[in-house]
Amino acid sequence: MESLKFSVLLSIYYKENVIAFKECIDSIFHQNLLPNEVVLVKDGPLTEELNLVIKDYISQYPIIKIVNLEKNQGLGKALNKGLQSCTNNLIARMDTDDIAKPNRFERQIQIFKEHPEIDVCSSWIEEFEENTTNILSTKKLPETHSEIVYYAKHRCPINHPVVMYKKEAVLNVGGYEGFPEDYRLWIKMLMNGSKFYNIQESLLYFRFSKDMIKRRGGWKYAINDIKSQLSFYRMGFLSLPILLYNIGIRIIVRLVPNSLRTFIYKKCLRK
User: What EC number(s) does the entry state (predicted)?
Assistant: First the structure.
């Protein structure tokens, strides 16, 4: 497995919590199988504290490569810049406040080694609050490519914070763009013939917060949802009945009170 080299791609901005960031980086370097490159995009100016922490990690791990952006450009554009700086074709994505389980990279590299036709490999994630002993839910996704295609007609089929993909397959469809950046990317790749697979176990702890659910509500988010669904329809990925169904469900979820939305996410959209 060590013959398959891979990069880890992260993007950080000034609001990141220092403790959460440290837990993330520590989890990367306490893996059963280590990357040979970590690309960290600074999405605009950071706080002095974050910069000091990054400087300390670079001194410990010289494989960390920094990509500096003068202004905050948002996750999608920052990741596109980072993709260009990754020297390996296999790239593991990670958010800078999540925690990878020790076998994450090992399990994913095993899939790519045994199934070279796979372009995108993700897994389940466990959502936690405050610490990893407080697991709120597990976000499970279908396993096989055909199941993933069907699932993608209604919901995002890949857990982006734990995905590993082939750089060339991502660049072949133009990388990240629009809203939501990850869901749109998966659809573009599916329509371009990329093969997908989800490992049927959790390989990452995802940091959950009530603010995250709150941000996903309101008319602004609902309108963005409608626009993205319309674009998927125009791309030829959705039929008209599925488009109308998806829009109806999303409007309801976005406009209900925050407490009810939290309940829906925890009890209906997770397991």
Answer: 2.4.-.-
**Residue 112 dihedral angles phi and psi, to the nearest 5°:** -65, -35
Q: How does residue 266 score in pLDDT terms, banded at 50, 70 and 90?
A: low
H-helix or E-strand containing 37?
Answer: strand 37-43
- pTM for this one? 0.91
DSSP string of 207-268? E--HHHHHHT-SHHHHHHHHHHHHHHHHTTSS-HHHHHHHHHHHHHHHHS-HHHHHHIIIII
| Angle (CA) 184 173 106, round 5° | 80
The CATH number corresponding to 6-208 among 3.40.190.290, 3.90.550.10, 3.30.930.10, 1.10.10.10 equals 3.90.550.10
Is the pLDDT at 1 greater than 50? The verdict is no
Sign (positive or negative) of CA dihedral 45, 48, 54, 55: positive
Q: What is the pLDDT of residues 38-47, one digit of tens each?
A: 999 999 999 9
Do 247 and 229 contact (CB within 8 A), yes or no?
A: yes
- Using CB atoms within 10 A of its CB, is residue 220 exposed (0-12), middle (13-18) or buried (19+)? exposed
Structure tokens of 25? 């980086």
- 181 phi and psi angles, rounded to 5 deg: -55, -45
Residue range 178-235, pLDDT digits in tens:
888 999 999 999 999 999 999 999 999 999 876 666 566 777 888 999 999 999 999 9
Residue that is written with structure tokens 């074709």 in the block: 89
Domain boundaries defined on the chain: 6-208, 212-268
